[in-house]
Amino acid sequence: IGRNVYYFDSLSSTNNKAKEMALKEKEGTIIIAEEQTKGRGRLGRNWVSPKGKGIWMSIILKPDMIPSEVAKLTLIGAAAINRGLEAMGINSYIKWPNDILIEDKKVCGILTEMSCELNMINYVIMGIGINVNLDKEDFNRELKDKATSLKLVTGKKIDRKRLIGNILNHLENLYIPFKERGDISKTIRISREKSILIGREIRVITGDKELIGKALSIDDEGQLVVEFKDGRVEKVFSGEVSIRGL
Ligand code: BTN
C-alpha cells in the first residue's frame, strides 16, 4: 500500500478521483490532495478540507471478496489510523465504525465506497480525512463543539508526511492478513481496546428507526453488540451511532 501515490494540489474529492482511476490502477494506489473543494462525508454530508491543513486521501483496494465484507475494511482503516497516531505519541479512540476521536471530539472520518458486480467487489475506495493542522477558525459554528484537530489537542504542528507513513505501515499490516486469510483478529483487538462506545449509552440510527441502548462489545466479525432499553441484545452491522449526551 502506498507504492503508487498521486498527489494533487486541489481536487473536488479524492474519493471521486480515486473512483475515476480505480479500474486502471493497481491495488494500494493512493490519491492525496492538499485541498478538497467538495470533500464528502458520510450520509451526504460535506467534509471541510482546507488547503495544506489536513490529510485528505483515498486508497484504492481490490480485495477478492463479497460486498458484505466491506464494512470490515473501515474497521481496519480506523485501527490503522489509531496505531499510526499512537506511533506519533497521540492517544485516540475509535467511535465504531468509522470515526477517530480525541477528547470526545472528532479528528478523523473514513468514507468507504465500493463498486461491485455479480456479488463480487471490483474495487473499494477507502477515503480518509484527518484534521491535522486545522485552527479554530477552520471549524464553523456547527463543527466547533464536535470536531477538533491534532494541532489543537497537542498544541503543536504535526508532520503530515510522517503521519501518513505511519498509518500506511499499519494499514498494510492489518489489511494483508485480512485479504489473504480473512483474518481481522488484530483489528478487532484494537477496535475493542480503543472503543469509545463500549459501556456507554448510545443512540443507534438504522434506516428510519432510532433506538437507545448500551454498547456491550464488538464481536469477532466487527459488529457492535448493543443492549436495547427493552432488554433485547442485538448486533448492529453498520449504521450511524452517537453517544448520548455528547
Ligand atoms: C465522515 O466521517 O463522514 C467521513 C469523512 C471522510 C472524508 C474523507 S477526506 C478524503 C476522502 N475524500 C472525500 O471526499 N471524503 C473522504
Automatic annotation (TrEMBL):
Residues 1-179 form the BPL/LPL catalytic domain. Its EC number is 6.3.4.15. GO terms for biological process: protein lipoylation; regulation of DNA-templated transcription. Keywords: ATP-binding, Biotin, DNA-binding, Ligase, Nucleotide-binding, Repressor, Transcription, Transcription regulation. It catalyses: biotin + L-lysyl-[protein] + ATP = N(6)-biotinyl-L-lysyl-[protein] + AMP + diphosphate + H(+). GO terms for cellular component: cytoplasm. Biotin binds at residues 13-15, 36, 40-42, 106. It comes from the Bacteria. GO terms for molecular function: ATP binding; biotin--[biotin carboxyl-carrier protein] ligase activity; DNA binding; transferase activity. Belongs to the biotin--protein ligase family. Acts both as a biotin--[acetyl-CoA-carboxylase] ligase and a repressor. This is Bifunctional ligase/repressor BirA. The chain holds residues 78 to 323 of 327 of the full protein.
